[in-house]
Amino acid sequence: MVTGVFCLWELSYMLLLSYPIKYFFKQQIFFAKH
Q1: CA 2 to CA 8: how far, in whole Å?
Q2: Which residues have a Cβ under 8 Å from the Cβ of 28 and sit 6 or more positions away?
Q3: Which residues of 20-31 are buried (b: 16+ CB within 10 A; e: fewer)?
Q4: What HEC string does the chain produce?
Q5: First and final C-alpha spacing in the chain
Q6: Any residues with CB less than 8 A from the CB of 16 and at least 6 apart, and which?
Q7: pTM of this structure
Q8: CA distances, 20 to each of 1, 5, 6, 9 (Å)
Q9: pLDDT values of the chain reduced to their tens digit, one per residue, 34 residues
Q10: Among residues 28, 10, 32, 31, which one has the least CA distance to residue 20?
């Protein structure tokens, strides 16, 4: 039970971290084209 909650928390944490990183990379690519 505890491991399931931890995995869920880890997944949501990774999503929270990866979303701004993806957005940042999209911005970098957009600026690189110009």
Answers
A1: 10
A2: none
A3: eeeeeeeeeeee
A4: CHHHHHHHHHHHHHHHHHHHHHHHHHHHHHHHHC
A5: 51
A6: none
A7: 0.47
A8: 30, 24, 22, 18
A9: 688 889 999 999 999 999 888 889 898 888 888 6
A10: 28
